[in-house]
Specification:
Layout: H1 13-29, H2 39-45, E1 53-57, H3 65-68, E2 76-80, H4 88-101, E3 105-111, H5 115-126, H6 132-139, H7 154-175, H8 177-184, E4 189-195, E5 202-204
Parallel strand pairs: 1-2, 1-3, 3-4
Antiparallel strand pairs: 4-5
């Protein structure tokens, strides 16, 4: 990975979020700006990168952030892991983006019909077991599901679980020493979002909540 080149325009967190929203709107309209990338763009990026946003998203093949936000090469620093969970490796990648790439905006991106969330809910409420490595992954999700109604139907649980998991990951990032330091500087912003995989529409959330808060 390269450090920032320093020659590109610096954007604020608010402008970065506006770019993501505008890109998603273009994607939904079927009017992408970046259907192909010029060779000179790639040649310039070989000298260094300065993405305007860092996206922590799910590995699900149906939610590629670069397409959802109509972003060009070099514009997004993307970290993808099943269930958009926080692990030491993911935290290290986020820290790299903040310290070296200085991206002003960090987005935790979940999506509807997330298999990791459904598996975590099945483990929590129906004691459905998974292979050991998958259960280690799900252990990162379970603490964020404490506020889910155990009597709700599975579809409602899944929808609530997706958003709760995004907020849980956000909370862990915001409460880490690095997260507190970056946010306190006033130039970084952390937001959550959920993509509807049936439409591609990305809905941005208002911020992390305490476990159990609705």
């Amino acid at each position: 990975m390269e450090h920032e080149s320093g020659s590109e325009d610096v954007v604020s967190a608010d402008e970065a979020l506006s770019r993501l929203m505008e890109g998603n709107a273009r994607f939904l309209r079927g009017e992408p700006l970046h259907s192909r990338t010029r060779e000179d763009v790639l040649a310039n990026l070989a000298k260094g990168q300065r993405p305007y946003a860092t996206i922590l998203g799910c590995s699900d093949s149906r939610v590629p952030p670069e397409l959802l936000f109509d972003a060009n090469f070099g514009e997004l620093f993307v970290i993808r892991v099943a269930g958009n969970v926080l692990s030491p490796e993911v935290a290290g990648s986020l820290q790299y983006a903040g310290v070296h790439l200085k991206t002003p905006l960090f987005v935790v991106l979940g999506h509807t019909n997330c298999g990791a969330i459904q598996a975590a809910l099945a483990m929590k409420f129906r004691d459905v077991r998974q292979p050991s490595r998958i259960e280690l992954l799900l252990a990162n999700i379970l603490p964020g599901l404490d506020g889910i109604d155990p009597h709700a139907d599975p579809a409602a649980q899944a929808a609530a679980g997706v958003e709760a998991n995004v907020r849980w990951t956000m909370r862990q990032i915001a409460e880490s020493p690095e997260g507190r330091a970056r946010i306190a500087e006033g130039v970084y912003r952390l937001v959550g979002a959920v993509c509807d995989i049936e439409t591609g529409h990305v809905r941005f959330l208002d911020g992390p909540r305490e476990p159990g808060q609705r």
